[in-house]
Amino acid sequence: MNRRKFFRLLGAGGLLGLLKARAQTPPWDEGTFAPTRTLGEPLKEYGQRSPFEEGVVRYISPNLRTRHSGASFAPLEKLEGVITPNGLHFERHHAGAPQVDPKSYRLVIHGMVERPLVFTLEDLKRFPSVTRTYFIECAGNGQNGYRNPPDPELTATRSRGLASNASWTGVPLALLLKEAGVKPGARWLIPEGMDAAMYTRSLPLEKAMEDVLVAYAQNGEALRPEQGYPVRLVVPGWEGSIQVKWLRRILVTDQPAMAKDETSEYTDVTADGRVLAFTWVMDPESIITYPSGGQRIQPGFHEIRGLAWSGHGRIAKVEISFDEGRTWRQATLEPPVEPYAFVRFKLPWYWDGKEVVLWSRAWDEKGNTQPTREEFFKKWSRNNRYHYNAIQAWRILPDGRVVNGDRPLGQGAFHPVGPVGGCGGEVLDV
Ligand code: CO
């Protein structure tokens, strides 16, 4: 039926009568189109979402011992497009989010420089600015994949929600370093946060000169406190833990700090028992957000939707398998496909009501892709905690329920027993 005919019928009450006669529960009643007779909400100085959307929130593990050291997960399957709204960007902090007064805020650059410098927030904003869309992903994202047997209740949020994507505005760190004049022989930067953990990491000077931002805005407004207000580092494509928030100072030096969070934490155990430090780049990831764990679908048409990203650059393609990797179909990528940023992938699909397992696999422009679970654990120890990027499977049961489709690995359970919370306390602290 064309639009004109639809409205003509509607005007005559024809369609309404037709539908009423046919259906026991009409799709609308007369009240649906009754004029609104009540005054709406007044103007507000700062907007809020609809109260009907209040259930769309970050996930915080009930296993966490304290909300001051841990993580909250972005609700990936409840979001559209690629930008994570500021109130839903995943959080990770080690001693709570400090409240920093922008008037007294200072950033110090010192050490192996010609001119040690102190910047106010106003100073930083006077420099030429850059706005770029980048994902930030906790090195511990995907940690639930270390669970064996896999958690049948897993959702997309709890599978990969320690990643978010935002438009960041700030000053290239290279500009500030040029202003200070880096001395020959300097190779490392030691950024430090002003949280109570004095969070400290070591950042190679080379990466800083390439594309690191000293960011003060997130999706057009000032950073949220939990994202480092007023100033944080944004290190494109690298693990979130090096993107120091509430940035207080940067020491320029010739050697890494070997800080707590790059030695006892954020190091990776390989299958043959070695421990790797300074593993910064995030390998490709993808997650089908619809249909995904916890949802329920009906037979018929569906647009499979998901998110993909890589710390090596742009996503080249995303493939979907309906037969656990024997054959693959290529999904469509929604432009623009930017480096170090979320991309939305889609694939039209008709579900015939039979049990099926969906896999997604991202490829980046450098030719990297995601391993299967079996392949992943050939390389990494089952006692590792970071950089899990194996394919996430979703199983659709005949009744339409979607559950974790990851198959258990042999040799019994590993994780979830341990003394510490890790990123989000999801795996280790149960
Ligand atoms: Co790492």
The helix/strand class is alpha+beta
Q: What share of residues is helical?
A: 10-25%
> Into how many domains do the coordinates divide?
2
Secondary structure: number of strands: 24
Look at the structure and give the CATH class of the largest domain: Alpha Beta
Q: Largest sheet, if any?
A: 5 strands, mixed
CATH topology label of the largest domain: Sulfite Oxidase, Chain A, domain 2
CATH architecture of the largest domain: Alpha-Beta Complex
Look at the structure and give the mean pLDDT: 91
Order of strands in the sheet with most strands: 5-4-13-8-9
For this structure, what is the CATH homologous superfamily of the largest domain?
Oxidoreductase, molybdopterin-binding domain
Estimated share of beta-strand residues: 25-35%
Low-pLDDT stretches are 9-23, 417-421
Could you tell me the radius of gyration in angstroms? 25 Å
Terminal CA distance: 56 Å
The shape is globular
Task: Please work out how many helical segments DSSP would assign.
Answer: 7
What ligands are attached or bound here? cobalt (II) ion
